[in-house]
């Protein structure tokens, strides 16, 4: 079995091959690297090197710069996979890296130049994240961190995840800054690279029509809608998400 790495401290490069590119997984807001564990298990079992990056969730440009640095330590071809806000990150981090062969958006934002997470999430009706957020946490630098209320986390974020697992996810959620959700994107790598989309039809963070809009706009090579799946489709349906990623790796 090839190695799986969680990027947090020192980064160890993972070597991909032409047959098995390295899959780089980037989580979104209110999640962490462990949200990819089910998907990573499937991918590594099929011979793919996997790197699960700890996304700082501080700002689109700085997070993308960090991700690009991590990705730059990996030799060989790459497939970048972003969940939710992580889609903003891969859309910028992939730019200028010829080793990136495809992008996979997992219930994720695929922004046009100048768009924000907040703007895209509100472009179509149906999202309920705002009502589920706790009071912002004030930071020493003047910024504010956002969390989902633990008593609303399962219903909002992970309705199709077993309750005990959803409770652990709520306790371990990573906050995102208010500034990050309102920072404009300058990355549109989906215009140059094959893109793949997979998302649930019961997503409450990004309205279904918003996800469909971004998939259509990107001329995605493949779009998989998972009936009844929540925003964390990679947690509840890891087999399906892994299959989409493997299709991207094979350029199918």
UniProtKB/TrEMBL annotation:
Stored InterPro entries: AB_hydrolase_1, AB_hydrolase_fold, Sec-Metab_Biosynth_Hydrolase
Pfam families noted in UniProt: Abhydrolase_6
Molecular-function GO term, any one: hydrolase activity
Record's keyword terms, sorted: Hydrolase
Hydrolase is among the record's keywords: yes
Domain AB hydrolase-1: 23-243
Protein name: Alpha/beta fold hydrolase
């Amino acid at each position: 079995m090839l190695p799986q790495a969680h990027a947090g401290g020192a980064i160890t490069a993972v070597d991909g091959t032409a047959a098995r590119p390295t899959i780089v997984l980037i989580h979104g807001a209110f999640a962490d690297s462990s949200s990819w564990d089910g998907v990573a298990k499937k991918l590594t079992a099929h011979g793919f090197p996997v790197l699960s990056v700890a996304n700082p969730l501080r700002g689109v440009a700085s997070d993308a710069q960090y991700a690009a640095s991590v990705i730059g330590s990996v030799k060989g071809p790459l497939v970048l996979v972003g969940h939710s806000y992580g889609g903003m990150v891969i859309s910028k981090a992939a730019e200028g890296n010829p080793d990136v062969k495809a992008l996979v958006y997992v219930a994720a934002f695929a922004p046009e130049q100048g768009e924000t997470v907040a703007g895209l999430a509100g472009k179509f009706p149906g999202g309920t994240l705002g009502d589920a957020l706790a009071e912002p946490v004030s930071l020493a630098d003047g910024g504010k961190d956002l969390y989902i209320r633990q008593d609303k986390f399962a219903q909002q974020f992970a309705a199709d995840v077993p309750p005990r697992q959803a409770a652990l996810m709520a306790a371990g959620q990573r906050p995102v800054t208010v500034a990050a959700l309102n920072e404009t994107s300058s990355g549109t790598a989906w215009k140059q690279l094959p893109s793949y989309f997979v998302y649930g039809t019961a997503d409450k963070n990004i309205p279904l029509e918003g996800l469909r809009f971004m998939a259509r706009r990107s001329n995605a090579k493949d779009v998989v809608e998972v009936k009844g799946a929540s925003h964390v489709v990679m947690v509840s349906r890891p087999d399906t998400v892994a299959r989409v990623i493997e299709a991207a790796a094979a350029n199918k």
